[in-house]
Known about the structure:
The protein is mostly helical.
Amino acid sequence: MLVWNDNGKVQITEIPPSIKAMELRLSPLRQQLHSHSLYNRIHHLSDIRLFMESHVFAVWDFMSLLKALQRTLTCVDVPWVPTPFPRSRRFINEIVLGEESDEYQGRAISHFELYLEAMEQAKADTRPIRRLLSSVSRDPGELIFDDVPPAAKEFVAATFQTIRNGSPAALAAAFAFGREDAIPAMFRSLVRHLSHTLDGELDLFVWYLERHIEIDGEDHGPLALKMVSDLCGDHPEAWEDASLAAEQALRARLRLWDGVLAQIDGR
């Protein structure tokens, strides 16, 4: 059940049975992700830099997945017409607001731009992601992956395949289980293993991690699950489509983490 509290925030009071069934189906993959050995291999600032240089591509393509959902669930054309699923419409607009223009130290900034600043503070290499941004600014169909870690390139390719070919239910499931729902536990594990290396060079990175723990764990994660339920409705084929998309998203994240781990171990 979905309700609005006194602060105007949307809350979920119960989880639909179909979501519980999907969570049970995905639990082996989620456990692999949450207990990935990458978290135990990050010991030094150089390890964090390698992690950020791959993870930034996931932070970036998250925005494209988010925008694909916004385009699906809302009307972005003129003249405007109302669209179905008003509760999910509200949620997606709420998360876009937070992701594109969150507040940090009195200024509005997207989480992606903040992540770039965190990389610069940590002296991680931002040139590959900036080249990619430059290429898509010139031509949205051109993705230049010069010097991009192979696992990050594969991760982006998997996301854009879902964006191009996925149903609304598939997009929502990839978003909920591959991103929002997986992030809190992943980032909590990472913060614990980073705690002994923190200094001024990681202040922004730690803020980013803690911010996602806050908003994804408490607000966006549960709402993303409701969005999946809204879009799947009572249609078994939609639930199966969503489950497959969620599995693909989790496997893509596992491969990304495997790639970062191989980089760290291969130095």
